[in-house]
Design a protein that fits this description.
Length: 207
């Protein structure tokens, strides 16, 4: 799989690079969060990140005044495993170099996605991107010569916290995995074994 840069024109289908903000304090706070070398850890809301002054600017400017949460996704992973999406865009700030595996939600057919539609993008250390809500993604992957990745994750408040109890009325409802989180899993994954909708077709991608 070709690895493109997030500054490339191709990334414009999925999101954009965030410019004009000072993220130094945010990255310093991220450095003090756990980063396992053999797994991935995620926290939807991390007070030390949300207390950074830039968080208020992200809320007012980047998210247009919407209530947001800042958390982290850290660790080590070289596989795609799943793809998820949300209602609303996602902010990702790279405390280390990382790789994003993404696909266009509009490529999903009958609640399934052919993994040949997935593309890979490199996000440099100390840069940030926004993924559109039509961009399917999952946890970042570890970049070459790195033992783990660190990323700040910004989403609409309440995302990934709990799961609403629903009676499915259509195919998409079967993929609701958490609050504001719809997920397609590869059959080899723990998510699939735990009941996630198996909707990724093809070999699980390894970077």
């Amino acid at each position: 799989m070709e690895l493109l840069d997030c500054s490339s024109k191709s990334f414009g289908r999925y999101g954009f690079v965030v410019e004009g903000y000072d993220f130094a304090g945010l990255f310093a706070a991220l450095d003090n969060t756990p980063c396992p070398k053999d797994s991935v850890t995620y926290r939807a809301e991390e007070p030390t990140l949300q207390n950074e002054p830039v968080c208020a600017k992200l809320r007012s400017n980047l998210f247009g005044g919407m209530a947001i949460q800042l958390g982290y996704c850290n660790g080590h992973s070289l596989k795609l495993n799943c793809l998820e999406y949300h209602r609303g865009s996602e902010f990702i700030a790279a405390g280390t170099p990382l790789i994003l595996l993404v696909a266009d939600l509009r490529e999903v057919e009958n609640v399934k996605l052919d993994l040949s539609k997935v593309e890979a993008f490199y996000v440099p250390k100390n840069s940030a991107v926004v993924l559109y809500e039509t961009t399917m993604h999952y946890a970042p992957c570890t970049a070459k010569n790195q033992d783990c990745f660190r990323a700040v994750i910004g989403l609409l408040q309440g995302t990934n916290v709990g799961k609403p109890e629903i009676t499915p009325v259509n195919g998409e409802d079967k993929t609701l995995w958490a609050t504001n989180k719809w997920l397609l899993a590869h059959p080899e994954t723990g998510e699939a074994k735990n009941g996630a909708h198996v909707g990724l077709i093809g070999e699980n991608i390894t970077v």
